[in-house]
Automatic annotation (TrEMBL):
Domain UvrD-like helicase ATP-binding: 14-279
Gene3D superfamilies: P-loop containing nucleotide triphosphate hydrolases, PCRA, domain 4
EC numbers on record: 5.6.2.4
Pfam (any one): UvrD_C
GO BP of this protein: recombinational repair
Record bears the keyword ATP-binding: yes
Residues spanning the membrane: none
GO cellular component, one term: nucleus
Protein name, UniProt field: DNA 3'-5' helicase
First-tier enzyme category under EC: isomerase
Organism annotation: marine sediment metagenome
Assigned keywords, A-Z: ATP-binding, Helicase, Hydrolase, Isomerase, Nucleotide-binding
UniProt keyword Transit peptide present: no
Catalytic activity: Couples ATP hydrolysis with the unwinding of duplex DNA by translocating in the 3'-5' direction; ATP + H2O = ADP + phosphate + H(+)
């Protein structure tokens, strides 16, 4: 909870909130609100909804289902609070007028049916396995970014951007698979819920006002969806977000979505720069990244504490943490040893990330095919040999995104293996440690910690921000996201922020 309970401030808006409410009440066009971390964004949205006349049809586009449910309980009855996928599903049901079912396994089923015929064209089992692994995530990114599936170079560039290990020969199959997914309308998947609305140009509902939450996390497909919605209804747009918290470019979000929304809908921009979550010391640390104009401490914020520890302080830093505290890192591997040491000492701790657990299991299974039943040492030798080949290939093919992901997986397995006697132990540790539980001390990558907060936050291995490979490549968009990651990590701390490097500068 923020240091200042926003519920208590609902009837006493801040100076910045009064400016926004005045613009809302006097119908001064479309509005874009830049809201810093902990600035009471949710409360501001509730104020806006209460300020709108009850006869208006209002859509509140929420980032996830839990937020939509929370808004639904708190907002006036004329506000339809839902995720953009939920709205897409509703539109599909009304427009197609056919009975359909939701099956998120649909893309996998279509891919399986497609792959069943590949051996007839001389594909080996290994080639088909590799094709299966990369095609579904690539299909999602092509949809989300609205990349032309027939443009081979654009698709290959997209694959590199998102770290997918894709062979040039497989790209030609993408348009066919996408067409199969779009053609089947009696069954829709999560990805279809927006794509079908935009691609098939379905009939859209009419709204007077469209509120957009977490606007910095929209992708190109979602922005296109909203453009069609506004064009059809002539709705007024009120968007809220924080461009400094745009960190989901790796999964399809448009890192410039706030700027695009402002330009497309000709929005007047307003600021919410006062943070009611963080202590003064934490705010000063965040200002080192974004400047004093982007985020300021509440006038009665506690002083708090920010400390920089030497590498040899690691064990003591971990010992002093309490349940509910968080340890954040740019990558997964550095989290493993301190988390397992904490568990071994009798304390509750988890690493957030069921999807990482699956990727680790997939890699272990691949090595086990040639080393099943052998010792842990032999397994690790096999992992090392496989890793060297893959790293050399990915580096040679300049697939830097895939290389970053693969190196983190390899190192994570090595770090877990230090605590194991055999491969079964290795799999059990990974299964137990990588979880979505929220008890005890929470270890997490920064990406997975967005939206969370804790009294004390440790930034582990701050020397990994920016990621060394991103820094070496020098891509400006990727470097900007790395800076945003640093800002997000620091502003998870309510009172105490600790920097714990693993090596000297």
């Amino acid at each position: 909870m923020d240091l200042v309970d926003q519920e208590e401030r609902t009837l006493t808006p801040s100076r910045e909130q009064r400016f926004i409410l005045d613009a809302v009440e006097n119908e001064r066009g479309n509005i874009l609100i830049q809201a810093c971390a902990g600035s009471g964004k949710t409360t501001t949205l509730r104020m806006i909804c209460s300020a709108l006349p009850m006869n208006l049809r209002v859509l509140a586009v929420c980032f996830n289902k839990s937020t939509a449910i929370e808004f639904g309980h708190k907002l006036p009855s004329n506000v339809d609070a839902r995720t953009i996928h939920s709205l897409g599903c509703k539109i599909i049901g009304k427009s197609l007028r056919v009975k359909f079912s939701i099956d998120n396994n649909k893309p996998q089923r279509i891919l399986d049916e497609y792959c069943a015929g590949l051996p007839d064209f001389g594909w080996t089992k290994e080639e088909i396995t590799s094709f299966r692994k990369c095609m579904l995530p690539l299909l999602d990114r092509v949809r989300e970014t609205m990349t032309n599936p027939d443009d081979r170079d654009a698709v290959l560039e997209l694959a590199e951007q998102f770290g997918f290990d894709v062979a040039e020969s497989t790209v030609a199959h993408l348009p066919v698979l996408l067409a199969f997914n779009r053609r089947e309308r009696s069954v829709i998947s999560f990805s279809d819920m927006i794509d079908h609305v935009v691609h098939h140009e379905l009939s859209l509902p009419i709204y007077d006002v469209i509120l957009i939450d977490e606007a910095q996390d929209l992708n190109a497909l979602q922005i296109s969806f909203l453009m069609r919605l506004v064009a059809v209804s002539g709705a007024r747009v009120i968007a809220v977000g924080d461009k400094r918290q745009a960190i989901y470019g790796w999964r399809g979000a448009d890192s410039k979505s706030m700027e695009r929304i402002k330009f497309i809908f000709e929005c007047e921009e307003y600021q919410l720069p006062v943070c009611y979550r963080c202590s003064t010391a934490v705010i000063h640390s965040a200002q080192e990244i974004v400047g004093e104009d982007c985020i300021r401490a509440y006038q009665d914020a506690p002083e708090g504490l920010v400390l920089n520890y030497p590498p040899e302080q690691l064990s003591e830093t971990m010992e002093n943490l309490e349940p509910g505290d968080m340890v954040l890192c740019r990558t997964n591997a550095p989290l493993v040893s301190p988390c397992l040491e904490m568990i071994r000492s009798g304390h509750k701790a988890v690493i957030r990330g069921r999807d990482i657990r699956k990727s680790l299991f997939d890699l272990i299974e691949k090595i086990e095919k040639t080393h099943r039943g052998k010792s842990l040492s032999a397994f690790l030798n096999g992992l090392r040999a496989h890793g060297l080949v893959q790293i050399e290939r990915l580096d040679r093919e300049k697939k830097h995104g895939a290389l970053m992901v693969f190196e983190d997986l390899i190192q994570t397995i090595y770090d877990v293996a230090q605590f194991c006697d055999n491969v079964q132990d290795l799999k059990k540790y990974i299964g137990d440690v990588f979880s979505e539980e929220s008890e005890g001390v929470i270890f997490s990558t920064i990406h997975r910690a967005k939206g969370l907060e804790a009294r004390t936050v440790v930034i582990l291995a701050p020397e990994l921000i920016p990621h060394p490979m991103v820094e070496r490549l020098g891509d400006s968009a990727s470097l900007e996201q790395e800076t945003n990651l640093d800002y997000v990590a620091r502003t998870r701390a309510r009172e105490i922020l600790l920097f714990q490097p693993l090596r000297n500068s």
